[in-house]
Specification:
- There is one protein chain.
- The chain is about 25% helix and about 30% strand.
- The longest helix has 27 residues.
- The protein contains one helix and four strands.
- Strand 1 and strand 2 form a beta hairpin.
- With about 100 residues, it is an alpha+beta fold.
- A four-stranded antiparallel sheet has the order 1-2-3-4, with no helix packed on it.
- The chain starts with 7 loop residues before the first strand and ends with a helix.
Length: about 100
């Protein structure tokens, strides 16, 4: 069986250390005309949830810089996408559990 490589990238954190992050998903917004990336460094927050981050990125690859999301409108768009994805995951898990 061939092992699939996860889509990862490295960033330098606030402490100057290189951290490997895993891409969760990317999407383009027709509303803002920007491309977004959601990713995790697979660390946990204080209540045990995996930390997830989102940034603006250049999907052409010309710039490797991740830009901060600064507007409430953009955060609402991203939170709506996360919510829809969580709902789909929950539906899939419920369907798998009911088949057991």
């Amino acid at each position: 069986m061939e092992e699939t490589k996860k889509n990862t990238f490295q960033v330098i954190n606030d402490e100057g250390k290189e951290v490997t992050c895993e891409v969760l998903f990317t999407f383009d917004s027709d509303e803002t005309k920007k491309s977004y990336i959601a990713y995790t460094d697979n660390t946990l927050d204080e209540i045990g949830n995996i930390k997830v981050y989102a940034s603006i990125y250049d999907k052409t690859g010309e710039s490797k810089e991740l830009l901060p999301i600064e507007s409430e409108k953009e955060w609402q768009i991203i939170e709506n996408i996360f919510s829809k994805l969580q709902d789909k995951v929950s539906e899939t898990e419920e369907g798998e559990n009911s088949q057991e």
